Amino acid sequence: MMDNRKLLGLVSSGLAAALLAFAAFSNSWIIGNNYEIRSEVGLRSVNICAEHSSCEKVSLDSWSKSAFAPKGLGTFQTLGMISFGLALALSLLMAVLLFYGISKKTPYWPIHPGSLALLLSISLLIVGVLTLALHPFKTAGWGTGPGFMLLAAGDVLALAAALILGRSEAKTEENWFE
After folding, report:
1. Residue 132 located in a structural domain
2. What's the pLDDT tens digit per position in 116-170?
3. Are 19 and 124 in contact (CB under 8 A)?
4. Which of 24, 28, 29, 170, CA to CA, is 20 to 30 A from 106?
5. pTM of the full predicted structure?
6. How many domains does the chain divide into?
7. Residue 12 lies in a domain
8. Helix or strand or coil: residue 127?
9. What is the DSSP-derived secondary structure letter of residue 43?
10. Helix or strand or coil: residue 123?
């Protein structure tokens, strides 16, 4: 029978993996309205929707090469790609922790996956906040969208899962001092 603490870690790990993957691919990190045009900016692309017509998806790469690119889009794009990579890596690591927790196997990695998850979680938190803080759409009054909120929730759950599952192994002679 599984104890409640380990179950909480497994549930946190599974939710974190899903939220982080969804947030990485979300197009709603930054949302704004200008002149009846709604824009939703993600880490790799932007959706531009006129009020009574369809939406158009434009990659940040092609937008940054256009004459209409806002100043600072290159910095946002670079930080966005780093955030995207960190979010996917942490999501994958949460799935690995979930696998080890469910299968009751001990990971024999040079660095425990829980320790790697802590490192990635803190890195993602810093880079994600920098991505949001340095976005070039502040002067237009655009604000935080649900994509970043999902990332923050997934990051907190990943941090909790890494702390819980990283210490859920039985003590052996090799790790008795931890």
Report:
1. yes
2. 889 999 999 999 888 888 877 777 777 788 888 999 999 999 999 888 887 655 5
3. no
4. 24
5. 0.82
6. 1
7. yes
8. helix
9. S
10. helix
